[in-house]
Structures are given as structure tokens and as C-alpha cells.
């Protein structure tokens, strides 16, 4: 039996996370879930969006499945998601962007994985006003963090038999910060002569990704560009409802769908559970339950391809529970 932390989250979070745990259970993998709170639900109970109790649970179990959560900015707390990444040193965000047959999207054969550096860049939130009419935000890039994300991307490429790693940057303008990121990735690339390596300026990558996305395989990017590219990548394969992700470090891995809390549809039981279920697939691969992971993945694809028992955003008329049941039946 495995142990993992379960964070249902806010909005549609509990609906889609429950779908994911029921699929894992039906597939026969025994996970003892330690349920904890983050975000709005944690605020309501502890007046703290990221309780210590939740951190302790993830530190102990080293694995968590988490729904989307929100932090009310007005209450003066930092985003619980950013704090969680910093507290647990989840230095990489990995997002597989893969076409699923039957999802309405402009492209068919996309299969890329984005490795986004998760701890620094403009996301460190080091900013201040200079007088009242100017603001300064500081971009931090270090060799250590850049080499760490690059090493993770290259070792994944070797392990998963991928063909190419692309580094996106803007070192032509930010010669020092992006220049350091680029030279760090290049340094790691030199240790992997069997993996093709290319460097692309991020603005031209954006253009090429909407024209020839099937050209890309593994992408390694600093934090901010990674945020933008991952969101666009989700759009290329048909939207946020189907894209999973993980924030991962040495000590822990937190699997979380890329979509938000979707307040407009929360509580209606109509959210698409695919992203959350594909998070469960990633979690199972991570703990070594590869065969079960493939079985669930194939079942998700089959259910979507058949196109009958799917949610509204996928062109169907069925509920989260109906779609989850169809996925379980197809297993
Ligand atoms: P947040 O502030 O938490 O990011 P948001 O509404 O700004 O919330 P999303 O939650 O990602 O951002 O939602 C964007 C749009 O996509 C909404 O219209 C939402 O209903 C839709 N959406 C997001 N996730 C799903 C899902 N799993 N199933 C169906 N629709 C979804």
C-alpha cells in the first residue's frame, strides 16, 4: 500500500480530484490518502491558505495529488501555490502537452514535454516602487537552478527515449540573466551527446509553436517563459481541461491539473476530469505503477475518442461522474 497526500482544493477541485482517486481505486492500486487543505478551504478553517499540517503531510508522504486552489489576494497572503513550491523546493514544473484523438484542436500530432524552472526568474516577487510612478521587478537567474532544470530535462529525455531538447531564451536582449540560463543549459547538453540539442529565441519559438508544434519534443525554459509556453501548449492540444502537470523537487512531487478552480462551473458536476485523471496517471508512473498508468491513460483516450460519455467542453452532454464511470468501464 502507498501513502500520499490528497488536497481536493477549491472550486471544481474536489469534483475532479474525486474522479481521479476513484479511477486509481478502480484500477486496483491501493493508496492511503491523507486529506489536507490548501487555499480558500484552508483559509476558512485555519485562517491560513497553507497550513503547516499540509506541508508536514507532503514532506512525510513525498507525493501529493492536488486540485486547483485560490488565495484571496485582498487578505494579504502570498499565493499558496507559490509558497508551496518554495517551502518544498519543488524546483521543476513538468507539463506534458500531448494530443488526444477526439479532442477538438487545430493540431493532431503534438507530443512535447515542457520543463519549466520553478523557483526564480521574475517569479521571485522581488519588486518595489521607486517613487509613485515607477516600479522595479528583479529577475534572478542562477547557474545552480538553471543546471538543475536542464539536468532533469536531459535525464528525462534519455530515460523516456526522446529525441531532442530545445532551450528557449531571450539572451540576445537579457545578455546576463538569460545568457546565464543559456550557458548553463548548454553546459548540461554537452554531457548528453546522443540527445539532439537546439536553442531558440523565445519569441520565434512562440511563432513556430503555433505553426509547427509537432517539431518540438522536450523544452527547457526559465520560469516566466515556461508559464506562457505551457498555457499556449495547453491551447494547442485543446485546452486546460485535458492537461496534467507536476511540481517536483528532490523531496516531493505534487501532481496538479493545469486548469484553475473554474468558479463559473464549480459545484455543477460538469467539470472535465481528464486533467486530474491524467495527473493520477503521472503519479502512478512516478511511483512505478507503469502498467496501471498505461491502462488508465489508454482508457481516457478511448473514452474521449468514442466521444459519447464526455463533458460539455469536449462536445458531450455528460457529467464529471458519468465520464469518470465511462473511463472506469473502458479500463
Ligand atoms: P482561477 O482563478 O482559479 O485560475 P479561472 O476561471 O481564471 O480560475 P480556469 O479555472 O482555468 O481559470 O478556467 C478558465 C475557463 O476554463 C473557465 O471558463 C472554466 O470554466 C474552464 N475550465 C477550466 N477547467 C475546466 C475543466 N476541468 N472542465 C471544464 N471547463 C474548465
From TrEMBL:
GO terms for molecular function: isocitrate dehydrogenase (NAD+) activity. The keyword NAD does not apply. Residues 3-327 form the Isopropylmalate dehydrogenase-like domain. The keyword Signal does not apply. It comes from the Bacteria. One of its GO terms (biological process) is isocitrate metabolic process. Keywords: Oxidoreductase. InterPro entries: IsoPropMal-DH-like_dom. Coiled coil: none annotated. Belongs to the isocitrate and isopropylmalate dehydrogenases family. This is Isocitrate dehydrogenase (NAD+). It comes from Lutispora thermophila DSM 19022. The lineage of its organism: Bacteria, Bacillati, Bacillota, Clostridia, Lutisporales.
Amino acid at each position: 500500500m502507498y501513502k500520499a497526500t490528497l488536497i481536493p482544493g477549491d472550486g471544481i477541485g474536489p469534483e475532479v480530484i474525486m474522479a481521479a482517486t476513484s479511477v486509481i481505486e478502480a484500477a486496483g492500486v491501493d493508496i492511503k490518502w491523507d486529506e489536507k487543505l490548501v487555499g480558500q478551504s484552508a483559509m476558512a478553517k485555519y485562517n491560513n491558505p497553507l497550513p503547516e499540517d499540509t506541508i508536514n503531510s507532503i514532506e512525510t508522504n513525498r507525493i501529493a495529488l492536488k486540485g486547483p486552489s485560490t488565495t484571496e489576494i485582498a487578505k494579504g497572503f502570498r499565493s499558496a501555490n507559490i509558497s508551496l513550491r518554495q517551502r518544498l523546493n519543488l524546483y521543476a514544473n513538468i507539463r506534458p502537452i500531448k494530443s488526444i484523438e477526439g479532442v477538438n484542436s487545430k493540431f493532431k500530432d503534438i507530443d512535447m514535454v515542457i520543463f519549466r524552472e520553478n523557483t526564480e526568474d521574475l517569479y521571485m516577487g522581488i519588486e518595489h516602487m521607486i517613487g509613485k510612478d515607477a516600479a522595479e521587478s528583479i529577475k534572478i537567474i542562477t547557474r545552480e537552478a538553471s543546471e538543475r532544470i536542464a539536468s532533469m530535462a536531459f535525464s528525462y529525455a534519455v530515460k523516456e527515449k526522446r529525441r531532442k531538447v530545445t532551450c528557449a531564451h531571450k539572451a540576445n536582449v537579457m545578455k546576463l540573466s538569460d545568457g546565464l540560463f543559456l550557458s548553463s543549459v548548454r553546459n548540461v547538453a554537452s554531457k548528453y551527446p546522443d540527445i539532439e540539442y537546439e536553442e531558440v529565441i523565445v519569441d520565434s519559438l512562440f511563432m513556430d509553436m503555433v505553426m509547427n508544434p509537432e517539431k518540438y519534443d522536450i523544452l527547457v525554459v526559465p520560469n516566466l517563459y515556461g508559464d506562457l509556453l505551457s498555457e499556449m501548449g495547453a491551447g494547442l492540444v485543446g485546452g486546460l481541461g485535458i492537461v496534467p502537470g507536476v511540481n517536483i523537487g528532490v523531496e516531493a512531487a505534487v501532481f496538479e491539473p493545469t486548469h484553475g478552480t473554474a468558479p463559473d462551473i464549480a459545484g455543477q458536476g460538469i467539470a472535465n476530469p481528464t486533467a486530474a485523471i491524467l495527473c493520477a496517471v503521472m503519479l502512478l508512473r512516478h511511483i512505478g505503477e507503469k502498467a496501471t498508468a498505461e491502462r488508465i491513460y489508454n482508457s481516457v483516450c478511448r473514452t474521449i475518442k468514442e466521444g459519447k460519455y464526455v463533458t460539455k467542453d469536449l462536445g458531450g452532454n455528460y457529467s464529471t461522474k458519468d465520464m469518470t464511470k465511462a473511463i472506469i468501464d473502458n479500463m
